[in-house]
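Hi everyone,

Forwarding the result from last night's run.
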Amino acid sequence: MKLIDLLEKLEYRCERGSVDTEITGVCYDSRKVTPGCLFVCMAGANFDGHDFAAGAAEQGAAAVVVSRDVTGLFEEREVTVIRVENTRYALAFLSAAWFGHPAKKLTVIGITGTKGKTTTSYLVRSILEHAGIRCGLVGTIETIIGDEVHPAVNTTPESYVLQESFARMAAVGLKAVVMEVSSQALMLYRTQGFVFDYGIFTNLEPDHIGANEHASFEDYLACKSLLFRQCRIGIVNGDDAHTEKVLEGHTCEVETYGMGVSNLLRAENLQLVQGPGRLGVAFRVAGLLEMEAEVPTPGRFSVYNALCAVAVCRHFGVEKEAIRRALAEAKVKGRIEKVEISPKFTLLIDYAHNAMALESLLGTLREYRPGRLVCLFGCGGNRARQRRFEMGEVSGKLADLTVITSDNPRFEEPEDIIRDIRTGIDRTGGAYVEICDRREAVAYVISHAREGDIIVLAGKGHEDYQEIKGKKYPMDEREIIRGLLDGGLQHI
């Protein structure tokens, strides 16, 4: 492919060589340079691709894309140099062109928001698949391409990887893709180079604010809002306090969903559903679509997730019965995931890893009037200490018993993190125990379970590892539970 064809959607200046150069591939990792490729110099947290431009030329790169001067590095090497304002932005368009603009062959659904992205994406995919519409998925847990499942590295992958996934989806005959769109991805231009058919907004609360993330809540909100200048139809939570701000400057058509009477699609008549090992909500869908529905997960937020999925799938003409079946059967790893080990108590695994998510989860479970609400959690190391105090305080207020344990300590000592969590709990007078080893902590809550308990293992969710001193060790709570029971652990 000619370089000029890859550059068709970009503003650029050719500082050296020719745009008629033949290109054999696109690369942004200096370790993966191949002869004849186009090397895109991107700056990251630890490395700047511009520092490797000369090395890429030595390895045979035919052209480099830069945002600062590197021409003096090449001397007599025959390499084309293309100057752009932002190389990350450029990579998105270059990648889309290299793979033949695969997003045009799919119906692309992008979901952004603080909470609910993962669950809603799986619900959308479940509904579409039930209706016979083959759908891929890109998200926090994994990327699904037909029968292939690939564990995720980022919520939204780099633009080249994303376009490659789109191309593979189109090649195996998928008709749609639903993807989580993180604020970081929007900020770093990973989702540029195509237009979303549907942009979805779930909700917004302060999160991902700090070093190497967003400088402020205003910046976080502004990044989320970018999706609605890059989609054809926006489907937004009309009940969220930040929806109006998120939609500022939008260029799309807008539909609303929620529980308020002004929303175009509404959930009404919510009823808690409860039984042995069973927690859910039944409700009526009204407005743009009329039907009865039930989800096998607790809480108003579960209804919001389901309603959002219905709002999306309505545009695909999915039959009501297919929607009902899909909602009733959908399960998401690590999102209020029930682990069936006893009919006498309920054991859940959830990814809640900040105070907002934990408060929402525990507050919801309180509505089911458990005998006891037991919360096991830890906090990640090398992250803001304030999160530890806040999570400790939330659990101390809402749980009958908190079991403080380790999460991903990273380069901190687990005991130091536990001490900070304890500080938060001590503000409430809530009951707690400390068990640093997470396996031992899980064994404790199961062996000490009482009839009617709801037990939450919070924080790890879908993660199957524990990160300690720069190394990831296998640790899946489902496997821990299975191993404990196989080893003869007693429970009621």
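The chain has three domains: 3-98, 102-329, 337-486.

Cheers,
N.
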